[in-house]
Write the structure tokens for this entry.
Amino acid sequence: MPEFRHRRRPESRLCLQLAPAPSTWPTAAKQAGRGCPCKLVSVEPVFSFRFRNGQAGGTGTATSDSDGNRVERTFAMDALEAILTRRSIRRYTSDHVSDETVLEILGAAMAAPTGANEPWDFVVVRDRTVLQAVSGFHPHAEMLKQAAVAVVVCGDPTRGRLEGRWPLDCAACTQNILIAANAMGLGACWVGIYPVEERIQGLRRLLGMPDRVVPLCMVSLGLPAEKKGPSNRFKPERVHNERW
Ligand SMILES: Cc1cc2nc3c(=O)[nH]c(=O)nc-3n(C[C@H](O)[C@H](O)[C@H](O)COP(=O)(O)O)c2cc1C
């Protein structure tokens, strides 16, 4: 029987573009301890790039700031690498993360599978006083004080008919956010809210959410100011073949 083997791309590293704000592009690459391995070939609306050895690197969508003059980043990390290198990053530089980037990440969030009729809504929070206030009712939310932006992943249990599904859907969205952020060179961390009642109430009050909406979690986002290796939690003894 033919054996399936996953082939990794030889140099699936990614990078950011420039023009005309070069200070933004090398940051993530530097933080990740590697130089920019690719060279921009073309820009709008889809650009392709090559690695320094001339090999084709891939394509990505050009994203600009609202002033229209900064192409921010693209990535060529493959899906498995983005999953396996994801870590909770809790320290960030003071760099801005654009609205376009956040929307791209939310596109990944909403691409998650849904068993509860798309129960999610997202609140994008940049207000520093709000990000700081979360620590008033959450003991493990200090990283929000440094984050460029945070996304609150909310569920509306009234949207789906199937009881108990909304947290599953919202958790799938959250995982997509974390993986997409990593693939784009951003650091991110899941900040748990649900099912701790004090945190749910605290966030509802802070953001003016209706009572029917339940915040599942927040995800802090920013350019990473810390570097972590892969978690390597694979345990072969947890894998059962055919029967338990
Ligand atoms: C449901 C859930 C809730 C979490 N809540 C928090 C939190 O409130 N604060 C925090 O710093 N990390 C939180 N984390 C991140 C975990 O601490 C982190 O995933 C774990 O330590 C493993 O590390 P890694 O993500 O770097 O692999 C949460 C993760 C999950 C899945």
